[in-house]
Amino acid sequence: MSTQQTPSTPSPSTAERPTRITVLAGVNALEGVALAVGGIYLLIMGLLGKLESAQQAETVGITLVALGAIPLIAARGLLLMRSWSRGPALITQIMALPVAWTLLRSQGALIPTGIALAAVAVTGLVLILNPATTQVLGIRRGARTTPDA
User: Fold this and answer.
1) How far apart, in whole angstroms, are the C-alpha atoms of residue 68 and residue 93?
2) pLDDT for the residue 143
3) 130, 90 in Cβ contact below 8 A?
4) pLDDT tens-digit map of 69-113
5) What is the C-alpha to C-alpha distance for residues 6 and 79, in angstroms, rounded to an integer?
6) What is the pLDDT at residue 88?
């Protein structure tokens, strides 16, 4: 029999994940998948020569796939309740706002897309900046104190 006792409080990784973290991870995963799918579409259309500038389409496609990895990695980190995932999740939401604004100022079917993207980005920002999220992820706020040597 072991002499070590299990702690009475569960570690953050084994604790039940709050709904806000799950929703935030879903928002980031949705954005990551959308970026990756858009990038793959541009890549395929560029390779097939169906776009005016195939080279530009391929470059943008590769860039979008690479950028899609950021929110997908953040979503996985959020699901695992890792504190490092807050940074990439926050950056993703901030980067989505100018894109949404550009879509809102365009015409046709891009306006509803801009509205949807703005709603998703603002939801993500509200969830990630919520003090309860910071606490759940184990991020300390305020000045750090160093122990006396």
Assistant:
1) 12
2) 59
3) no
4) 999 999 999 999 999 999 999 999 999 999 999 999 999 989 999
5) 24
6) 94
Amino acid letter, 2: S
User: Quick one: tokens of 127?
Assistant: 């969830």
As a whole number of angstroms, the distance between CA 35 and CA 75 comes to 14
* Position 31, amino acid: E
Average pLDDT along the chain: 86
Taking the C-alpha atoms of residue 128 and residue 149, their distance in angstroms, rounded to an integer, is 36
Which residue, chain included where needed, has tokens 């993207």?
117
Tell me the residue type at 136.
Answer: V
Q: At what angle do helices 86-104 and 54-79 cross, to 10 degrees?
A: 140
Give phi and psi for 90, each to the nearest 5.
-65, -45
Phi, psi angle pair for 45, to nearest 5°: -65, -35
Residue 70, token pair as written in the block: 């950021």
Q: Can you give the pLDDT at residue 11?
A: 47
* Amino acid in position 48: L
Question: Is there a contact between 48 and 42 (Cβ–Cβ < 8 Å)?
Answer: no
pTM, to two decimals: 0.78
